[in-house]
Amino acid sequence: MEWSYKMKRKAPALIAFQGARGAFSEEAARKLVGPRTAVLPCERFEDVFRSLKSGLVSGAVVPIENTLAGSVHENYDHLVNFELPIVAETSVRIVHNLIVRKGLPFSKIKRAFSHPVALNQCLDFFAKNPQIERIPYYDTAGSVKMIVDEGLSDAAAIASSVAAEIYGARILRRSIESDRQNFTRFFLLRTANYASRHKILPAAHTTWKTSLVFSTRNTPGALFRALSAFALRDLSLTKIESRPLRGKPWEYLFYVDFLGREDTANAQNALNHLRELADFLRVLGCYPKGA
Amino acid sequence: MEWSYKMKRKAPALIAFQGARGAFSEEAARKLVGPRTAVLPCERFEDVFRSLKSGLVSGAVVPIENTLAGSVHENYDHLVNFELPIVAETSVRIVHNLIVRKGLPFSKIKRAFSHPVALNQCLDFFAKNPQIERIPYYDTAGSVKMIVDEGLSDAAAIASSVAAEIYGARILRRSIESDRQNFTRFFLLRTANYASRHKILPAAHTTWKTSLVFSTRNTPGALFRALSAFALRDLSLTKIESRPLRGKPWEYLFYVDFLGREDTANAQNALNHLRELADFLRVLGCYPKGA
Question: Residues A73-99: pLDDT tens digits?
């Protein structure tokens, strides 16, 4: 039974993400796991976390922050609730393209469908082309699928180039976003079991990041003292995010990313120091810093 | 022309807020300005800020954070962009009620309309009453107006008691939210001109809050040093929020609230200290701490 043994050992690399095929999360999944990875599109972020927790997929890719829109706060909440470790990060430049069914000329376009956030990021394009009406749709890539499936002959969609490719549509105008400084950072999550079996070996010259979440007693100077655990050891923070603490109105959970490997003496000392001050502390993952 | 002189001096207390009449923001406006204040409902938060900036209204009430859902990040961005000072804060307990047209019994209800966030905050109610379908609507109070205007005889809305009162509807079930620890904090904003003409006198025993926004150079320990300006002077932070800095990917603006009056020597020293460290610093307002 060599075959079934291999099947068991080598779980298929199926990666869950939120959105339709061709979403920016799929682009991130290809960067993180490989260009030919099999993917499972999910409707909601919660479904993405659930499908990994239940073992339906072997990994999940979720957006955590965008340089224009800010953090994806819902995913911060899921990170602490689902306890699925972060094993890698990447960032994707968000390039919005005007996409149509093949053969449709620009002059015919009267409507453009996309997610409201994407439409808002292309305001300069719409100002220059007032004949095109903006129409909100639930998803960027989903809007490409829709214009193709419905055979719309006066409509475009705004989405990634991967979405155009997947649905056999054509890019009429590339990169119509107003602000080029538009990046989304994504995490690759695995199960705790998988992460412990596939420890990444420390390569020379790799910069590492550690992500954690903590809460402190609600006393004056508590956050300052908590951050001293890092500052006193020259560990540089790259991100701090606060989220409400359930059941304790006006108290907060703090999510922190710092540059450093969790298993070094310096980081261990910082975490032990923070443990003295924190009511709650959990490391969410340690992973190579993305490009 | 005594009359016109008075007209000019005493601007009508018209307060803008986002949502339909009867929104929780209207409840906050009544608490902040008075039970009989005239209000201007606006479709979007941006419209609320614009209407105050342009002088159409004399004040604006906006939600800034909720103890379950977290910060209203869009309004943090508007605070720094519109430069309208915060002059007061309050918090409102979010009580969701099942509201119907007068005369409709509970047994007839097959559908409940409300904002998706409100529907999600009443999951226990829906679990106990599986015969009632949840239907997302753009606004809580707006859903009450709709069931009354349309004369729906199988539908309820979920909204505040003020919304039931305004639209002449009836509360069938009070306080159906799953978690009672559900509060939203609101700011009252005025024009800079108005705020400087109506300085609040320091009453004894009043606790004050000061809100500010700053950015630091992106160097190790920068946030820790920035917070030292408050910690070294025993000024207690009640909130910190980070938002992306436009044009500088992966850098952040920090919004901080601390307990203290901006015009005391201690707070002035802290602000001067922070100014040494910050690339950008602006005080957003100083106001009595809400109950």
Answer: 999 999 999 999 999 999 999 999 999
- Of the candidates B67, B239, B241, the beta carbon closest to that of A249 is on B67
Dist. CA A100–CA A154, nearest whole Å: 9
How crowded is residue B92: how many other Cβ atoms within 10 Å of its Cβ?
Answer: 22
CATH level 3 topology of A97-173: D-Maltodextrin-Binding Protein; domain 2 (3.40.190)
pLDDT value of residue B289:
95
Label each residue of chain B as H, E or C. Answer: CHHHHHHHHCCCCEEEEECCCCCHHHHHHHHHHCCCCEEEEECCHHHHHHHHHCCCCCEEEEEEEECCCEECHHHHHHHHHHCCCEEEEEEEECCCEEEECCCCCHHHCCEEEECHHHHHCCHHHHHHCCCCEEEECCCHHHHHHHHHHCCCCCEEEEECHHHHHHCCCEEEECCCCCCCCCEEEEEEECCHHHHHHCCCCCCCCCCEEEEEEEEECCCCCHHHHHHHHHHCCCCCEEEEEEEECCCCCCCEEEEEEEECCCCCHHHHHHHHHHHHHEEEEEEEEEEECCC
What is the CATH architecture of B12-93+182-197? 3-Layer(aba) Sandwich (3.40)
What is the residue extent of each domain of chain A? 12-93+182-197, 97-173, 208-288
Specify whether the CB–CB gap between B279 and B215 falls below 8 A.
yes
- Cβ-based contacts under 8 A for chains A and B: 96
Query: What Å distances lie between residue B223 and A123, B228, B240, CA to CA?
Result: 34, 9, 11
**Record: contact B223-A237, CB cut-off 8 A:** yes
Measured distance CA(B270)–CA(B263) in Å, rounded = 11
**Burial label, B269 (beta-carbon count in 10 A; 0-12, 13-18, 19+):** middle
ipTM above 0.85, yes or no: yes
pLDDT tens, B160-193?
999 999 999 999 999 999 999 999 999 999 998 8
Q: Which residues of A touch B247 (CB under 8 A)?
A: 179, 181
Evaluate whether B97-173 and B208-288 have a shared fold. no
What's the pLDDT at B247?
Answer: 85
Residues A35-83 have pLDDT tens digits of: 989 999 999 999 999 999 999 999 999 999 999 989 999 999 999 999 9
A165's CB contacts (< 8 A; 6+ apart) are A22
Concerning whether B186 is annotated as a catalytic residue, the answer is: yes
Q: Best interface-test mutation with B: which of A240, A245, A273, A274 has the largest number of B CBs within 10 A?
A: A240
Q: Cβ separation of A249 and B224 shorter than 8 Å?
A: no
For domain A208-288, say whether CATH 3.30.70.260 is its number: yes
What predicted TM-score, i.e. pTM, was given to this entire model?
Answer: 0.89
